[in-house]
Amino acid sequence: MNLRILSLPLLVSSAFLLSACGGSSDSDSSYPEAYIQLYNGSANSASTLLYIDDVALGNASYGDATGLYTLDAGGAALSLKRTDASDKVVEIMSQDISLSDGHKSLYLMLGDYSDPELVEHKFERAELNDHFTLHALSAIPDKTYDLYVAEAGASLDDAHLMGALSFGELVEAQYWDGDADSADWNVDDYVVYLTEPGKTEILYESGTMAFNFETEYVMVIRSSAGASQNNLIVDLIINSTSVPSYKDIRAGAQYRFYNSLEAGIDLTATLKGNDVEQSIDVAARQLSDFSTVKYGDYQISASSEDAQWAFSNRLLTLNQGESKTVVLYKNAQDQLSSLAFEDSDLPQVYDHEVNVANLVKDYSNIDIYFVRQDETVETAEYKLLNLEFAESDDISLPSDYYEIIALYDDNSGNQTLLYRTQALAIEDEVSYVVSVEPDSSSASGYRVALLH
């Protein structure tokens, strides 16, 4: 999606100024202006633009936030919008708001994107020397979680119950070790646990969370999206576009294989490690289903039935909540090899994160164009240029129909057409892979495959 974000000079001319990230500095003595920020907690959303009085401020994808902006206090018209496949700006919702000097208004967009709920959290900004404040809520409908917080390294037995988190309901987390100097939280490292209400079975355990800024933190519990779904994730919203996200350190991972070899060369791929051994038969030009496994480091191997094509002892690292695709291909020496990349964890509803792999060894690099109905190669908005052999890259595409065209440009004005597909729909809620690969049955000797 091509988002139009106003430049800083234009924002300044409109009396909007982007504030600094993180907490307050030593030179800050007060917060005299009104502040606003948007967090996107809608799991089936597009990247969403925040508008105030018809002026675009910033955008946020699922699990991210806009920057923190300063505005004049008083009434304002807030609207949330997205850009569709035709570059038309579509309004998602709008409402009148009131901004106050010395206060930050954090708006959290939650629920179904077709009719989202906008939760306002307004709080007075203050000097927080060596301390921070903490609020928390759940962005997961129809579920409630008990939130426990402890010092880094502590177990659930030594953690402190902060309260029950329900969808859209903000809870202020009270620090258990306040002193005469301040009842607020000490800037330090902590760990978070989630359980079902009143129970002790751990549903989520974070790694060490660094609370480094002297500021107001809002913690959001949400579900993963994209290829790997329904894992719990904890986001920490501060005064920045950067939202630290913490996956469950006990969460599993998943992987799949794509056999890019030509017809008749079927492969068996094997993953070993952590007392696990899984073998998957992958027919030529087929993408396997995802297989689930414990996170960790694994050895992968693959071979054809006659062992003419084989490799072994390749490392594949799968982190918590991670999803990877492993492409099996012929390398420059005509030997079987592998290429792995991570699948997107963003919602694949309005926008699609497409991984593109170049398996064509005959050219130093190739260009891949995603051409819509009213475009040509020269006018195509979406393209990946200079993708080298045995490398992959990703591109975000709005739902639409695309001809996928692979070219080689010799930088002398000569372009060689490797392959051109018919118009293909990229619109399903799946993880797409585009493979540019050799194909002896094609007139050009190559083909482009759209996989999911």
Structure write-up:
Helices cover 1% and strands 53% of the residues. The chain has 452 residues and is mostly beta strands. It folds into four domains: 125 residues, Immunoglobulin-like (Sandwich); 123 residues, Immunoglobulin-like (Sandwich); 92 residues, Domain of unknown function DUF5300 (Immunoglobulin-like); 105 residues, Sandwich (Immunoglobulin-like). Strands 10, 13, 14, 18, 19 and 20 form a six-stranded mixed sheet that branches. Strands 1-5-2-8-9 form a five-stranded mixed sheet. Strands 11, 12, 15, 16 and 17 form a five-stranded antiparallel sheet that branches. The relative contact order is 0.10. This is DUF4397 domain-containing protein. Keywords: Signal. It comes from Bowmanella dokdonensis.
C-alpha Rg (nearest Å) = 25 Å
Gross morphology: globular
Main CATH class of the largest domain: Mainly Beta
Largest sheet: 6 strands, mixed
Enter the CATH topology name of the largest domain. Answer: Immunoglobulin-like
Protein name: DUF4397 domain-containing protein
Keywords: Signal
Organism: Bowmanella dokdonensis
Give a quick set of tags describing it.
452 residues, mainly beta, Immunoglobulin-like, 4 domains, six-stranded mixed sheet, 1 helix, 53% strand, disordered N terminus
The gist of it:
By secondary structure, the protein is an all-beta fold. Helix content is about 0%, strand content about 55%. The chain folds into 4 domains: about 1-125, Immunoglobulin-like, CATH 2.60.40; about 130-250, Sandwich (Immunoglobulin-like), CATH 2.60.40; about 250-345, Domain of unknown function DUF5300 (Immunoglobulin-like, Sandwich), CATH 2.60.40; about 350-450, Immunoglobulin-like, CATH 2.60.40.
